[in-house]
Amino acid sequence: MNIIIKEVLTRRDLKKFIDFPNRLYTGNPYYVPRLYFDELNTLRRDKNPAFEVCDARFWLAYKDGKIAGRIAAIHDKPSIEKWGNKYLRFGWIDFIDDEEVSQALMREVEKWAKELGMTGIHGPLGFTDMDNEGMLIEGFEEVGTLATLYNYPYYPEHIEKMGFRKDVDWMEFEGKVPESIPEKIALIAEQIKEKFGLRLLKVNKAKELLPYARPLFEVLDTAYSGLYGTVPLTLKQVDAYIKQYFGFIRPGFVSLVLDSSDKVIAFGITMPSFSRALQKCRGRLFPLGFLYILNAFRKNDLADLYLVGVEPEWQGKGINALIIYEIARTFIRNGIKKAETNPELELNYKVQSQWKFFEMRQHKRRRCYLKMLEE
Question: Read out DSSP for 195-219?
Fold first, then answer.
């Protein structure tokens, strides 16, 4: 076999690890590169606070002297403790259409899993639910988004041949933004605010959202705690995410609902789509990539629906409808014609039902695979 597996131990190899997909998908019109600095901050032990509670190893596969694949394995201790499953996570998996390559990569993950006393392997997953997750199994001819992974159709074929089976699926929807919102809906939104003494935070600059950033993540932690793969975030992780992502926030596309004591009880985070901009700059902000990002802010008819969360005690009281109403208003005001939901668990009907203002099309599906290990 002319396959060599090399563990990533140096900064130079880590850069090769991050760069590999951009070469693998050269010329593919649906692949959206990851932000390079984002990947670097996530995978470096000295940058990502997740390494305080997790361990991870990364490998590159070489065939005939050229990089032919990559994979990460994550020993996510908070996840094991929370869910009671001794599973090792795999992620950042990419490979050429060669079963020897994909199998050689997964053997390294399985070997480490057995050394750790794990009973199974599942993925693709990241350190937390904030990382990209799920292998695309439907929608290969749909453009990806900043928050999702793209992969060739042969990926799931390779994985399933290795004995992996479905553990859970996420679905994604594309929604057509209405030209106007019925007056009845606007009336309901106002009634909800008046009934519970709520208000929507209005800000003009992203930095004005910073005092509400930690409370937003507190809502996120409680609202998403029962969803597949979620882990509680440490304060250091929260602060790292704030530092990493809040510079990209466009205030008008973020809805924060405050109760009568100005406590954050719900939020909706959307953004103009960066997909085309990232394709043009290949995931790098410099030297000119930031200009493509700025242009995506200013001129765009496509948006991404990232996160919607409501404190459990406020769920079922129409708060979601209030948030979606505000999001729809923002989209109409900014000329957004279509929006992508990003991944939603296939059985999370509550989330799927909240997009009733939009004419929806289910266009992608992605899967987390699981393989139990032999003793």
Answer: HHT-EE---SSGGGGGGGHHHHHHH
Cα–Cα distances (Å) from 342 to 88, 220, 230, 357, in that order, read: 25, 16, 16, 17
Q: Which long-range contacts (CB under 8 A, 24 or more apart) does 205-212 make?
A: 205/251, 206/246, 206/247, 206/249, 206/250, 206/251, 208/251, 209/246, 209/249, 209/251, 209/254, 209/256, 210/242, 210/246, 212/256, 212/264
Residues in CB range of 199: below 8 A, 6 or more apart: 193, 257, 258
Structure token digits, residue 129: 């639910």
Write the CA distances from 152 to 25, 41, 208, 305, 320, integer angstroms. Answer: 9, 26, 41, 24, 35
Which of 361, 21, 312 has the alpha carbon at shortest distance from 177?
361
Q: What count of residues does the chain have?
A: 375
How do residues 189-229 score in pLDDT, each as one tens digit? 899 999 999 999 988 888 889 999 999 999 999 999 999 98
Distance CA 273, CA 303 (A): 5
Greatest distance between any 2 Cα atoms in the chain: 70
- Both tokens of 320, joined, read 């979601």
Minimal CA–CA distance to 24: which of 149, 130, 148?
149
Give SS3 for 189: helix
Domains defined for the chain, CATH in brackets: 3-169 (3.40.630.30), 175-367 (3.40.630.30)
Q: Within the chain, which residues score under 70 in pLDDT?
A: 1, 375
Total-model pTM: 0.94
